[in-house]
């Protein structure tokens, strides 16, 4: 079989096609890399859902590559706990996933993303720092106002004085009834002695008084006789 030499024109055409194919491959590769999932297409934010804290992660990857997102609470540069893990497929408008986390103010979280074969495990930089104000503030007790005392009707209106009944003369001189007693009533003499405060010396005094009266009478009698005798 005879070998037919390639003409110079054919060689130039082949060379041109090869360069065009290589250029096309480079352009397609660059385009593919541009559409591939990238860590820069992920963002994280700490928010409040009412009184509860949440952490949201948004994926704006147009290619829609499925990615796995993990969130970790940091403490002195190390993972203190794993908040959770979710899968997400990005979109041009952005796809957002939410992690429920009652975060504290100024806390730090590490957000890890893996989307093979494009992202082989990378963190969103810098780490997420929560706001300085918590979602739920401590309830401050409201002081209860002290009710103002209202003067009552009895305090405002003086009560009418009820006149005290004056006892009548008969009532005032009437001695109260003496309660009956089973004890024997004292004799009249004893009663008088008790009322005057006399004691057992009363008889002696009475005797002395009678003796003195008798002596006085005797003296008067003898005096009268002597006078009569002198007159004779």
General description of the model:
The protein is an alpha+beta fold and 232 residues long. It is 33% helix and 25% strand. Residues 23-34, 172-179 and 191-198 have low confidence and may be disordered.
Task: Itemize the secondary structure elements and their pairings.
Blueprint: H1 8-35, E1 42-49, E2 52-59, E3 66-75, E4 78-89, E5 95-100, E6 108-115, E7 119-123, E8 128-129, H2 153-156, H3 169-173, H4 188-196, H5 202-231
Antiparallel strand pairs: 1-2, 2-5, 3-4, 3-6, 6-7, 6-8
Query: Helicity, in percent?
Result: 25-40%
Question: Structural class of the helix and strand makeup?
Answer: alpha+beta
- Name the poorly predicted regions: 23-34, 172-179, 191-198
Largest sheet: 5 strands, antiparallel
Query: What is the tally of beta strands?
Result: 8
Q: Cα-atom Rg, whole angstroms?
A: 66 Å
Strand content: 25-35%
Q: Describe the oligomeric state of these chains in a short phrase.
A: single chain
Give average pLDDT, whole number: 75
* Count of alpha/pi helices: 5
Shape: rod-shaped
How would you spell out the order of helices and strands?
Answer: HEEEEEEEEHHHH
N-to-C span: 237 Å
